[in-house]
Predict the 3D structure of the following.
Amino acid sequence: MDTFEQSPETQLGRAMFDELIWIHGMIRRDLATVERLAADVMTTLSPAEVQRELKELKTSGRLWQLKVNCLRYCHFVHSHHNLEDSVFFPILRQANPAITPVVDKLEADHRRVSDLLDAVETASAELTSSASDVARKRVAETLNELGRHLLEHLDYEELNAGPTIRRLREL
């Protein structure tokens, strides 16, 4: 353990970490919702039902919910990671230079998650134009891969950046 992480936690640091956990909780909850919707598209809707719902574009239809939730979710995660990269990570590096390898990995994770989010958006758009089993499978697979990587990233960040975050004295 480096000397920075031997210092006591601060009120500001604890509040920042609690906010990070809260945001990560929203990401985890929304990811579970989007994955459930993708599973429904994969397993319970016939191609005829898919086409009917696409034509109607009902806000209560499962495909519409999948597309909107995917896009909203992808935008939220992109925004969260961009904010961390541009504002928060430089603060962590300055506060505790020993955390640099952790921040480097988190930034690399952000790039990977960004690519996966783009793949989810592309797969969602393909599902809108084609109700094929291939399109359905691609949505399910990209969501599952995103889920694995994103959950690993969130856990890593909480575990490895958490001690520094909880000791921040100023922003």
Observations:
- The first helix runs from residue 11 to 43.
- The two ends are 23 Å apart (CA to CA).
